[in-house]
Specification:
Layout lengths: L3 H13 L4 E6 L7 H9 L5 E8 L2 H4 L14 H28 L4 E4 L6 E2 L4 E2 L3 H7 L4 E2 L5 E2 L7 E8 L19 H5 L5 E2 L8 E2 L1 H11 L4 H4 L6
Antiparallel strand pairs: 1-2, 2-8, 3-8, 4-5, 6-7, 9-10
Helix pairs in contact: 1-4
């Protein structure tokens, strides 16, 4: 376990991280959960998950469209460039925390903003950033199956870092979140989203969503229309 001084050192670093939102989930608070199971599979002695998020600007997102004209300039390219920039910053944040942990003699595993291994049989990544973000108090998962943050809605990209450092959570319980307006369900081009039954946060046909996303060269309609954080 970290000494008080060492814990403060990492806490100070988190204050300096270039991210719009930072949250910490202490795995001892989630005993027996899938979050703990997947984290320990990747880093057997992990004690904390640090989650980083950066805003995707609505000015850029509002220009994106899944409908393109052959040969015409695609404004989706602006969103791709913006995502590339954000992904780089988030991945650096994850590596900065990993480096600080390793400098204290503690193992750490930075998980990049893009490129987390995916099980194509189920379209599920080996570690769920959005569920980690919910556990870390960054936001709540909404009907669009994405993490809804209070300030930015679903307009955030995420990265994580698993560490053996036992860090104190920095966020309280998030209130609010998805308001159930159903705009994301109505706008989905392939009807991949459905109204979830009681007790379920969302219903999504991941294969329909993924197939359309690949064929259209990208789609962010459910993110664009979400009113939270606007």
């Amino acid at each position: 376990m970290l000494s008080e001084r060492e814990s403060v050192d990492i806490a100070d670093l988190l204050q300096e991280i270039e991210a719009d939102v930072v949250g910490i989930a202490r795995l001892s608070d989630f005993k027996g959960s899938k979050l703990e199971e997947t984290a320990l599979r990747l880093l057997p002695e992990a004690r904390s998950v640090v989650v980083f998020g950066m805003e995707v600007y609505p000015e850029i997102l509002d220009l994106a469209s899944p409908e393109t004209v052959m040969g015409a300039a695609s404004l989706n390219d602006l969103l791709v460039s913006n995502a590339d920039f954000i992904n780089g910053r988030l991945t650096k944040a994850a590596y900065d925390v990993a480096r600080a942990s390793r400098n204290l003699g503690l193992k750490a595993l930075p998980l990049p903003a893009t490129g987390c291994p995916l099980d194509s049989r189920f379209l599920g990544s080996v570690f769920s950033y959005k569920h980690a973000g919910e556990a870390a108090g960054v936001g709540k998962i909404g009907w669009n199956s994405m993490l809804i943050t209070p300030d930015f809605g679903p307009r955030v990209r995420l990265a994580c870092c698993l560490t053996e450092a036992e860090l104190q959570p920095v966020n309280g319980q998030i209130t609010g979140g998805c308001n159930g307006c159903g705009l994301c369900i109505d706008v989905c081009p392939v009807r991949a989203l459905s109204m979830p039954p009681d007790g379920e946060p969302y219903i999504i046909n991941k294969f329909a969503c993924s197939t359309y996303y690949s064929a259209a060269g990208g789609c962010s309609e459910c993110v664009r229309v979400c009113p939270i954080g606007r």
